[in-house]
Amino acid sequence: MNPNKATDNRFNSYFQFIRPSRQQQRQRQQEEQLVQSSPKKKNNNNNNNNNNNNQLHIDTDPLGISYNSNNDDLTGQRQDEYYSDIFRNLNYPHDKPRSSCTLQSKDKQQQQQQQQQQQQQQRRRSSCTQQLLNPPSLSPSPSPSSSSSSTAASPTYGPLSPSLVSRRDIPHSKCQIRKGSFTSPTGSINAKSWEHMKSPAASFLSSFASPIVPPAYEEDGDEIDDYVFDKVIGQGGFSTVRSGYSISDGHKVAVKIIKKSCLNDQTQSRLDRELDIWKSLDHPNLVLIEKILETDHAMYIVCNYCGGGSLLDRVNKKRFSEQEARTVVIQICHALHYLHQEARVCHKDLKLENILLDDSNRIKICDFGLAIYQAPSMFDEVAGGSLAYAAPEQIRSTKPLPSPATDLWSLGVVLYALVTGRLPFQDCYDVRLQQKILDGQFEILPEDNLSNGLKDLLHGLLQVDPHKRYTVQQVLHSSWCSS
């Protein structure tokens, strides 16, 4: 048979199916009249309809056409394949998969969501521009700010100006230790181990298979929240400092671990005060808290990691040149200005061990365990700290003095140690050491080769009378710092 003629016959039969001829209409009308006149035939037709309902039935929504699996066309094909072929030629929509409709609806939903997100972003941008044009009024309460952070982070340090600031919000959550759920291929745990992970999601899912055990001691490779513990880098009376890194992005952190069993009422109150002060600070030359985690056995303070070590480590290797010491002193002064003028806090334990260097050789002051607010109050505790760095007025007092001048004395001791390689006041007997500090007599040797400007600055900082002692502004405007 000619293929063109066969196709024409198929199309003709299709059109006859959906639009019957006049002769067929007349026959149907006659059959309906006979059915109405004969009730028996009506019952038979009902039975036939019931039988047809029991057959396999495929319904197509657009045209309501039914395909019976028992009927075949002239060429031996199934009738459903026969008509579906016709629909493809006619490009009727009901021959297309219904999933495409759902996909189209999903695409429309995604487009609507994208349009909503774009509208929200435009609203945010407009609100931000309004805030920039009309800045909100500043709060009169003194608290830390990020404004000084931007000035101190710049290479050239401009004039200092006090500014009112806002308190930082530090996440504090309760969690559990996961024992060794991830180890690096080399066997050692460090920040580079993060590069070997397939994805943060893989580590998150692997944590579900990790046994959650309350350990007596943390070990290398243990996980808590989004962090992995590395080696111990510091040890204190009731705390341990470990290095570590974040699982989500791989940045290195330091984790201060405080065992709750080692805390009594006095140390607990000190810890609460330290965290209250530390959480409020925000300056590039201070070690800042990133997150506080807590288990039933310990508290974990996640903070900045300083890979350059402390100034004590550097001085033990080689003493600083005046240019190197000048860079350090300027950064310390900006940190002290922030603490004294904006945070209204005295550090009270400024020494070489508590001044760290990050990977970019930027100064970071740490350890706020003895820090106090400058607001007048009654302290029930005894003054603490390192005697070699203590100011004369603090030695005379048994209570911690909330005076910024005590930090400036400690700065003078640090500066002297940087450029000479030794402390200005030394003695193996504490009573004699206290007397030397009270007298304020220190020695500058000829072989130290210090400039006159540096000598004047040291005498201004190590001034026994706190009222005559240099302030932060006087240090920065001294001939030695401005040279």
TrEMBL record:
Keyword annotations from UniProtKB, A to Z: ATP-binding, Kinase, Nucleotide-binding, Serine/threonine-protein kinase, Transferase
Region (Disordered): 21-77, 89-168
Span of domain Protein kinase: 227-481
Source species, domain of life: Eukaryota
Chain intervals with Polar residues compositional bias: 66-77
Active site (catalytic residues): 349 (proton acceptor)
Biased composition (Low complexity): 44-54, 110-121, 144-156
Per UniProt, location of the Glycyl lysine isopeptide (Lys-Gly) (interchain with G-Cter in SUMO2) cross-link in this chain: 351
SUPFAM superfamilies: Protein kinase-like (PK-like)
A molecular function GO annotation: protein serine/threonine kinase activity
Binding sites annotated in the UniProt record for ATP: 256, 260, 353-354, 367
SMART domains in UniProt: S_TKc (SM00220)
Family per record: Belongs to the protein kinase superfamily.
Protein known as: Protein kinase domain-containing protein
Organism expressing this protein natively: Circinella minor
